[in-house]
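Async update (no meeting this week)

Hi team, since we skipped the sync, here's where things stand on the single-chain job. The sequence we agreed to prioritize is pasted below, unchanged from the tracker. I ran it this morning and attached the output directly underneath so nobody has to dig for it. Comments welcome in thread, and please keep replies under the output.
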Amino acid sequence: KDAIAPFFSPMKIESGDWLDTQKEPGETFEQYIVSNPTLPTKERNTIYIQPIGKFTKEQDRAIEQVAEYMRAFYSLPVKLNSVKPIGNVPTDKKRLVKYRNNLQILTSHFTDEVLPKMLPEDAASLIAFTNYDLYPEPRWAFVFGQASLDKRVGVWSLYQFADPVTGRYDPDFLLSRTLKIAMHEIGHMFGMRHCTKYECLMSGTNSLLETDRRPLDNCPECMAKLAWAMKYDPVTRYKKLADFWRKQGWKDEENKALAKLRAIESVK
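Output:
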């Protein structure tokens, strides 16, 4: 993991950031190993993605790209299910933000009630995509996504990624933000806690500005956790990530993945 450390910046906390408002100790590689995380097995090794709601063509495309990136990121089979409607949401599991005329749904509606009933026997995890806004508890304004550390389920929302004035999505921001939130929540579902050491995909975020500062990859500490948990060779992983970014035409991200690959190969 020391080989890729130069590619990541130490955590910098700005006013209003996650760690400015939430006190978290972080988690080392060694602490993760002894935490008995929920991990894939031979019988349960597939990540399922369940879209719930109504999506535009650009949102559908972003979800498809997430499934492809997830295969490279976690080296597990990924199955993208067909879209399901939101259905009836209990009154105590939703609220209306009147000044925005915006319906929000409590994350526990998904993580405690809807998704556990849908969890396939071979699922390493099941995560829902929705275009509805989410909130984790009454005192919170919203949340990008939330996952259970032990139930193998989670949910994330595309709602906050749109321009607040026009309601439109910038394609590049939609993809990068969706990838970050999705990979982050899957990390939680495999028992990984927030990173506090580096600017990392697994770092907590309070806003889109903070999310946009984060990289599209795990830091050295979190990459080591993933390699151990998935039995995933880092060189193979970076080859797959570079291939993904090459297909997207994102040369900068492709070059970053290839540089990390070469750095690891140089110390082997």
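Quick observations from my side:
The longest helix spans residues 171-189.
The mean pLDDT is 93.
Reply here if anything looks off.
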